[in-house]
Design goal:
heterodimer; A: about 550 residues; alpha+beta; 10-stranded mixed sheet; 7-stranded mixed sheet; 27 strands; B: BirA Bifunctional Protein, domain 2; 8-stranded mixed sheet; 4-stranded antiparallel sheet; elongated
Chain lengths: ~550, ~475
């Protein structure tokens, strides 16, 4: 999540209003206030709005939202004359480069920190952990243009940021903290991406680390920005967001010529949208002028285009406008989500219970009638509980999660009975008798279906109790069944029966084997039953599958 | 005052003797000593008798101790097995040497010099030997000097005996003097007594209504399931159809069909439980692919880049029930549709009191020709209102598959405004590939949060690894919060 620190004084100066108004109204453009502190507020902005990941971007949006300054923000760019070439060898490694020159910055420590946190938030939201886009900012005056973005041999060395000694790029991956964090993004390539100046000095080893040479300090006046990545659109969005944020802070933006293309233009994209479609979606009746007004408050350029359409200029920093409805959402925000009149539609429909939950409901009624307490165990468990403790062979089709979070939760349950045994163990110190049941999903071979299981623990629990419970459950579910001696090793030989429906085993009941009792640390006999609910008449076929 | 039959019998037995040991009374009353103690205590509470409890401790030889009875402690036995001196080597061959030599030295009975053991002459029996001799003779010894040493050596063990002396009080005597009817009281009426009318002349035992009964526990639906059923009931009342479906979903249905880009962080293994299994793509998946790559036939640009079918085939444990909603809509693309689902969803989170790797989500969808954003807010207000959250407000939200999106908040006494779920209108990028031509209002919430608020829980795990005692003690009907 992107949590952005907004210092009040800076924000107030940029936004042109007081802190209380800002704190009250920021949530209504789409944000969660995390913490309100003495001198700043921490706000979480949504991942689709990376343009709000800086105080400058927030101030820009709030000036519009509060009616202080509306419409498309204008950014002028002029050429810097600086050029960049891209080595064709990068095509399969990290092909795209976006760049710009930002002049007349005035950084104090706080401003540098703010820029760094914008950079980190963009790495997360746009850069997908630097893979898709990585951003570098450099002191332009420490190096000499033109610049080259090259595919370098891996043993090239330079002094990385925060170090004093030269290291080879391979050494950086092994020894520099950033190298270790991001090595996985490049280590499989024969050559590594590298940015060098006219004198072959290293500016950056994207997406890993900049050189110490171009470190940005409070003395820095002019910046060279590089954004490299694997997606052209994402690279340019990152360039636009950083350039416009720094322009809001007072810097001037100059273009760089990358492989003959001058960038950034900071020009808006154009869309013409339907007023009627917007009104229909939001349940409002808007005129083109009203809609355009709303959009100008959201910092779009917007003018009515005839009677039924609005021509919209989308600012270059808005990464989230994919579809006309994305613009309509901004109309809703400008209107004020709190100002909509909530109504119920006339849609007339008839309720319908799902047959599986209907069967589960019947099971609950029978089992509680027998004095059983319901349990709702986890579906993730492990093979020790599911199989080893039960003396059972692992069921074919047991699903293993690829990256379990703990040894306790490695597989999806194929049965409920073992989980009830585990629950008896956890409740060992509680008064007996204890009778527990669970009804719920199990999964075999990607197919989800439902089972019920019941356990009864007390000094007199026996086969007869299990049989009686299994019998009443089947009868109450209108399930005609026969019983055959079971071979289920979780139960005691001679005291176990299989519930047979249509020639297939649909369930089992009996006395739990003492070895299983020992495995679950239980000291009294357990009468148990389990039933597959797909056997119940009326169970829908086929069961849910991916 | 009404006396129970047992109280009467006790008074009668005590009458001639005034005071007696419980064991003797048991003989007189032809019952067990424990029973007498019980009656006497009850009678004591009513002032009929006094009960004096005396606890005494005595010490009897342990198994090891028994072996020394009549022979003396090992060190004494060994000491007496030789004269003034003996070579150490010879002494060690005595069967008790191992225990005895240490004790003889400790008690200063011997000195060892150059491998020769020499008696010191001060070999009088100590208090431990005196105590042991007493225990040997009479089978036990009372607490006293020397006993502690014997306990430490494991030669005697403590036995606690409790004696009860029951004495009749003057109030008891008064009642006894007034004459007592010793006819047997009747507890449970028999079939015969009821039919014959004999019950009319029977002394029916009176029960003390101030005494709480033995606790009984009914079989019960789990408190969490009751909340789930209450929510289902609300949605049925509002005319919704119930959906159900598989826990395992292909990434296609869990993510791609919902226009979640293939490089979205939620699709990384840190956040989602992936399985090794794959599931073939459904017919018409190309429309979803086109939507991702360039926005299909809508006004969308799509995400750009190349969409991978292989990535869409990977199975996951569903991260939301929205995967069921979109499949339901794909099967029912014509309006109106009002459907809901309550099902378990999975997030790869480390488990702690407020985070679980699996929990229930409720989701509702409404699709119809003229539904709009205001109707979405209307459904949310109605649903939360019926859940008992009367104050509901809305803020802009963000969810990858809805646009516009809204975060509903409800007011909870003592907590303030609490964010409860998310909602929005399905993006056209989600609905268009399945031929769904009308807006789909959708909302969802993690209902374990609601259960926590309702049941006053601090730890979500209590819902899934429940303490039996908690389920027993949580009332079936809790009333409204």
């Amino acid at each position: 999540m992107a949590i952005i620190t907004l210092p009040y004084r800076y924000l107030e100066r940029l936004a042109g209003t007081d802190r209380q108004t800002l704190i009250d109204r920021i949530p209504m453009i789409g944000a969660d206030i995390e913490r309100i502190e003495e001198d700043h507020v921490d706000v979480e902005f949504f991942p689709n709005r990376p343009d709000l990941y800086s105080p400058e971007g927030v101030a820009r949006a709030m000036r519009g939202f509060l009616g202080i300054e509306e419409g498309l923000p204008a950014y002028t760019v002029r050429p810097s004359g600086i050029t960049f070439t891209i080595d064709p060898g990068l095509a399969g490694i990290r092909p795209f480069l976006g760049s710009a020159v930002i002049r007349n910055v005035s950084f104090d420590e706080e401003a540098i920190e703010s820029l760094m946190s914008l950079q980190e938030a963009l790495h997360w939201a746009v850069g997908r952990g630097r893979g898709k886009v990585a951003i570098g900012v450099h002191d332009l005056d420490a190096v000499t243009p033109p610049f080259r973005y090259i595919a370098s041999p891996r043993d090239r060395s330079f002094v990385p940021l925060d170090f004093e000694e030269e290291m080879t790029m391979e050494e950086i991956l092994a020894g520099h903290p950033k190298g270790r964090d991001y090595a996985h993004l490049v280590e499989n390539f024969q050559r590594f991406p590298l940015i060098v100046d006219a004198r072959d000095r290293v500016l950056s080893f994207p997406p890993i680390i900049n050189g110490e040479l171009t470190r940005v300090t409070t003395e820095t006046k002019n910046i060279l920005l590089d954004c490299t990545g694997t997606d052209r659109k994402a690279v340019m969005i990152a360039v636009n967001i950083i350039c416009t944020a720094l322009a809001e802070a007072g810097a001037t933006i100059e273009t760089v010529t990358v492989e003959g293309q001058e960038m950034p233009t900071l020009a808006p994209a154009e869309r013409t949208v339907s007023v009627a479609e917007c009104s229909r979606l939001l349940g409002l009746s808007l005129t083109p002028e009203e809609m355009a007004q709303h959009l100008r408050r959201m910092r779009f350029g917007a003018e009515p285009d005839g009677d039924s359409r609005v021509r919209v200029l989308v600012p270059c920093y808005r990464a989230d406008i994919l579809h006309d409805w994305d613009i309509f959402e901004d109309v809703a925000i400008a209107h004020g989500v709190e100002n909509f009149d909530a109504v119920l539609p006339a849609t007339d429909t008839v309720a319908q219970e799902h047959p599986i939950t209907a069967i589960a409901g019947a099971v609950r009624s029978v089992m509680t009638g027998l004095g059983y307490l319901e349990a709702i165990p986890f579906t993730l468990t492990n093979e020790r509980v599911l199989y080893t403790n039960m003396q059972r062979e692992p069921a074919p089709g047991t699903l293993r999660v690829l990256h379990p979070i703990s040894e306790e939760q490695t597989v999806v349950r194929t049965d409920l009975l073992p989980l009830l045994m585990e629950l008896l163990q956890a409740n060992k110190h509680r008064e007996l008798p204890q009778r527990l049941f669970a009804v719920g999903d199990v999964v075999v071979d990607c197919v989800t279906y439902q089972k019920v299981a019941g356990v009864s623990i007390h000094p007199a629990a026996d086969f007869s109790e299990a049989y009686a419970a299994a019998d009443v459950l089947c009868r109450e579910l209108s399930l005609s069944y026969t019983v055959a001696e079971s071979v289920d090793p979780a139960f005691l030989d001679g005291r176990r029966g299989d519930i047979i429906v249509d020639g297939k085993i649909a369930g089992v009941f009996g006395e739990i084997h003492p070895t299983v009792l020992n495995a679950f640390d239980l000291e009294h006999p357990v009468a148990a039953l389990a039933l597959d609910l797909t056997a119940v008449p009326g169970y829908p076929v086929p069961p849910g599958t991916p | 005052m009404e006396l129970t039959l047992n109280e009467k019998k006790l008074l009668v037995a005590l009458g001639p003797v005034g005071s007696a040991d419980a064991a003797d009374l048991a003989d007189l009353m032809e019952t067990r000593r424990e029973a007498v103690v019980q009656y006497a205590n009850l009678a004591g509470e009513r002032g009929l008798v006094d009960v004096e409890k005396r606890v005494s401790r005595r010490y009897t030889p342990t198994e090891e101790g028994q072996a020394y009875i009549g022979k003396g402690l090992p060190e004494r036995q060994v000491l007496e097995s030789f004269g003034e001196t003996i070579p150490m080597r010879d002494l060690q061959s005595h069967p008790l040497a191992k225990i005895a030599i240490g004790w003889m030295r400790k008690k200063n009975w011997i000195a060892i010099k150059d491998g020769v053991v020499q008696k010191t002459g001060t070999t009088a029996p100590g208090p431990d030997e005196v105590a042991f001799a007493r225990a040997s003779e009479s089978g036990s010894v009372e607490d006293g000097v020397g006993v502690a040493d014997l306990i430490k050596r494991g030669l005697v063990q403590e036995e606690e005996t409790v004696a009860y002396t029951v004495s009749i009080t003057s109030f008891g005597r008064q009642l006894l003097a007034g004459g007592l009817d010793l006819q047997e009281e009747v507890g449970t009426l028999t079939r015969d007594q009821i039919l014959s009318g004999a019950w009319k002349n029977l002394p029916l035992r009176r029960y003390d209504v101030t005494k709480l009964p033995k606790r009984a526990y009914p079989g019960k639906v789990h408190p969490y399931q009751r909340i789930i059923d209450e929510m289902r009931r609300i949605l049925f009342d509002m005319g919704f159809e119930e959906m159900a479906g598989g826990i395992v979903q292909s990434s296609f249905w869990n993510f791609d069909a919902l226009f979640q880009p293939q490089d979205h962080p939620a699709r990384e293994m840190q956040d989602t439980f992936f399985l090794g299994e794959r599931w073939p793509l459904p017919k018409g998946f190309e429309r979803v692919r086109d939507m991702h790559e360039h926005g299909g036939e809508t006004s969308s640009t799509g995400w750009g880049g190349a969409w991978s079918a292989a990535k869409a085939e990977q199975c996951v444990l569903r991260t939301h029930t929205t995967s069921l909603s979109i499949q339901h809509l794909a099967e029912h693309p014509k309006p109106p549709v009002k459907a809901f689902c309550i099902g378990r969803v999975y997030r790869r989170e480390a488990i702690d009191p407020t985070h679980l790797a699996e929990f229930e989500q409720l989701e509702g969808i409404v699709m119809d020709e003229d539904v709009n954003f205001r109707h979405l807010l209307g459904f949310l207000k109605e649903f939360y209102g019926k859940m008992g959250f009367e104050k509901v407000r809305f803020r802009p939200g963000y969810f990858p598959y809805t646009e516009p999106s809204v975060e509903p908040e409800v007011y909870v006494e003592g907590l303030g405004w609490v964010e409860l779920g998310g909602s929005g209108i399905f993006r056209q990028e989600v609905t268009a590939p399945f031929g769904i031509d009308y807006p789909v209002l959708a909302w969802g919430l993690g209902i374990s949060r609601v259960a926590m608020l309702r049941l006053g829980l601090r730890d979500l795990r209590q819902l899934y690894k429940s303490d039996v005692e908690w389920v027993r003690e949580t009332p079936t009907y809790g009333g409204r919060r």
